[in-house]
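Weekly sync, protein design subgroup
Attendees: M.S., D.O., the rotation student, P.L. (late)

Item 1: inverse folding check
M.S. brought a backbone from last month's batch and wanted to see whether the design step gives back something sensible before we order anything. D.O. pointed out we never logged the input encoding, so this time it goes straight into the notes. Structure tokens as presented (124 positions):
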């Protein structure tokens, strides 16, 4: 082989080696980019899952709040009923106390009358 042929072969080999190393470098870059994109996609999917869980938790909390409001409303209604019943019981108590007072007064008057009759009978 003469010198120009060797130079041509060396040039072609150099170009081939350069092309091969460029391809290897490109492949590594693509793999790095793919790995980076995969990590980012994984983070995004994890964030989406967390957001979905948070939304589900918020819906559960809303249901609990609604139930609590319903229970508070029921308790308030029962409290109002108890207050009404207590007022009615107080009215009945006051009415009975007034009747007892009248009976005591009437009893006192009756005893005074009985005492007067006894005094008259004793004088006879």
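Designed sequence read out in the meeting:
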């Amino acid at each position: 082989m003469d010198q120009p042929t060797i130079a041509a072969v060396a040039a072609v080999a150099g170009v081939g080696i350069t092309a091969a190393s460029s391809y290897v470098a490109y492949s590594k870059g693509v793999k790095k980019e793919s790995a980076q994109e995969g990590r980012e996609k994984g983070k995004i999917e994890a964030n989406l899952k967390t957001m979905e869980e948070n939304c589900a938790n918020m819906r559960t909390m809303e249901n609990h709040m609604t139930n609590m409001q319903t229970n508070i409303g029921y308790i308030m209604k029962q409290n109002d009923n108890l207050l009404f019943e207590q007022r009615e019981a107080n009215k009945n108590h006051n009415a009975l106390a007034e009747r007892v007072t009248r009976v005591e007064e009437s009893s006192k008057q009756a005893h005074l009358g009985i005492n007067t009759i006894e005094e008259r009978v004793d004088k006879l």
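Discussion: The helical segments are 3-123. The CA atoms of residues 28 and 34 lie 10 Å apart.
Action: P.L. to compare against the previous round before Friday.
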